[in-house]
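User: Hi! I have a protein structure encoded as tokens and I'd like to know what sequence might fold into it. I'm fairly new to this, so please keep things simple.
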């Protein structure tokens, strides 16, 4: 079954003769068992609201089908999905090998929070070779963490190589798959043990809920993920699970539009004298482009541009003139976004040498001509501020 059909069919209720197309929102804390035998058998089914309702199960089923894994569990945010997936495999005295291009809050969780409990983290170049990764592995390395493309700078990582290196050292490969929406890349097929998404982004797709997904490749891994989430007391509202599943029904259609608009915006930026470099995996100039061509079936709507050096007042004028591109955190919704980011603040294993301001851009679903006009207006304001 192809992904578009999975997105339309997965997680739909078929347990009664007449049923709704989408599972309804089932909100509950307490579930009642009709008999004592049912109570004893409860662990095999729905038992308690925090452990999931049929609404949650429907979403988990759909994400598992999309990711091609054994089982999916939900977390209340993408960040907790990352953190719980790491916690599932480490203890005092263990070591984590993490890409230097990881999402900064995940970095902080490892290098500051987990450090308090005797867990050490080493950051590696996202473009490191097999030999370089192997040299960083230790006998106590339990997790190799990848994010492909990298946060803010969009380097594409070689997941099959990382999986081989991790497994050779007895570690798990945990991959953040948010950028692809689980549609354009399949980390588990490429050897990852765990594939994570901030479902807040493309899965939900409408900028109105927070959720994370953790998909395991096998039963043993899934049990450890479930235990970690259980001990953390993680809970996702049934409403957010419903919104995410509903969003998934249109995932491929939305991603196609995001990709088309991104291609047009890249053409636009290539013609602008203010832009020095474009950061997008589909471009030959992007680090890891050949890996992207091998492992991805498409590109989403998030990318970066490096501006030629300009004073801060000019940058402020640029942002203040934008009307359609919003200035805000997160991405993956229907709205276009533009944010000033600073990769140099978050690197330790590599060095960011670009002198110009870096803009992280998400191409939304607005008309592309209107988006270009919005950027034209912003660049005009930028030049006016330089006079």
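Assistant: Happy to help. Inverse folding works backwards from shape to sequence: for each of the 387 positions I chose a residue that suits the local structure. Here it is:
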């Amino acid at each position: 079954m192809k992904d578009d059909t999975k997105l339309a069919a997965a997680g739909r209720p078929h347990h009664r003769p007449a049923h709704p197309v989408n599972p309804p929102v089932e909100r509950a804390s307490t579930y009642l068992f009709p008999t004592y035998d049912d109570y004893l058998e409860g662990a095999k089914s729905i038992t308690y609201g925090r452990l999931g309702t049929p609404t949650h199960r429907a979403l988990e089923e759909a994400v598992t089908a999309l990711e091609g894994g054994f089982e999916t569990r939900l977390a209340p945010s993408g960040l907790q999905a990352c953190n719980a997936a790491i916690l599932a495999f480490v203890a005092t005295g263990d070591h984590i090998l993490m890409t230097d291009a990881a999402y900064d809050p995940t970095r902080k969780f490892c290098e500051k929070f987990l450090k308090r409990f005797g867990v050490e983290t080493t950051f590696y170049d996202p473009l490191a070779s097999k030999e370089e990764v192997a040299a960083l592995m230790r006998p106590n390395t339990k997790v190799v963490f990848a994010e492909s493309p990298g946060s803010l700078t969009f380097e594409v990582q070689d997941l099959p190589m990382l999986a081989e290196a991790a497994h050779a050292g007895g570690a798990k490969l945990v991959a953040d798959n948010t950028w692809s929406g689980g549609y354009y890349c399949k980390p588990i097929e490429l050897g990852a043990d765990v594939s994570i998404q901030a479902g807040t982004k493309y899965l939900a797709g409408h900028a109105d809920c927070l959720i994370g997904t953790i998909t395991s490749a096998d039963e043993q891994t899934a049990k450890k993920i479930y235990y970690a989430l259980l001990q953390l007391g993680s809970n996702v509202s049934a409403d957010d699970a419903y919104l995410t599943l509903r969003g998934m029904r249109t995932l491929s259609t939305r991603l196609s539009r995001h990709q088309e608009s991104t291609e047009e915006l890249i053409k636009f930026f290539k013609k602008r004298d203010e832009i020095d470099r474009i950061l997008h995996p589909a471009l030959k100039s992007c680090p890891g482009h050949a890996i992207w061509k091998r492992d991805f079936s498409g590109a989403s709507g998030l990318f970066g541009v490096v501006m030629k050096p300009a004073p801060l007042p000019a940058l402020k004028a640029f942002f203040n003139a934008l009307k359609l591109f919003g200035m805000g955190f997160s991405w993956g919704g229907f709205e276009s976004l533009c944010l000033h980011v600073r990769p140099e603040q978050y690197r330790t294993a590599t060095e960011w040498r670009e002198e110009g301001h870096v803009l992280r851009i998400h191409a939304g679903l607005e008309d592309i001509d209107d988006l270009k006009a919005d950027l034209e207006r912003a660049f005009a304001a930028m030049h006016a501020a330089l006079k």
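A useful reference point when you look it over: The first strand starts at residue 71 and ends at 75. Feel free to ask if any position seems puzzling.
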